[in-house]
């Protein structure tokens, strides 16, 4: 298990919401509804009076954290030798293109593809223009 949480691997620590911010409160609300056994449609419905962008951002970050954790547990079993192609079954092969290093869709081994994908997603989440973190403090009650 120690290898799964090695920082040199693709596992990344969870991105945290700063306590005292509106997004932190929304995150707590989302966690509570997801853990309560309620139906998922109701769990992701925008709470009354909340900003839709903040609500979506909270769910995107939570989803990334969960996928990252799952990927961290299986990455040692999927090596360039055992997973030479990033595929979605025998009919689909995924190719990487990022317009920087890979200007054309390029076939890559699954671990390399996943590393690039997780890095790209993390860059998007950390981009203040897409997911601003300084969204106001919690409303005083």
TrEMBL record:
Name of the protein in its database record: MOB3B kinase
Ordered alphabetically, the record's keywords are: Kinase, Metal-binding, Transferase, Zinc
Give a yes or no for keyword Zinc in this entry: yes
In the record, what terms sit under GO molecular function? kinase activity
The UniProt entry, under Pfam families, shows: Mob1_phocein
Task: Give the residues the record marks as binding Zn(2+).
Answer: 78, 83
Gene3D superfamilies, A to Z: MOB kinase activator (1.20.140.30)
The record's listing under SUPFAM superfamilies reads: Mob1/phocein
For the keyword Kinase, the answer is yes
Q: Which gene encodes it?
A: Mob3b
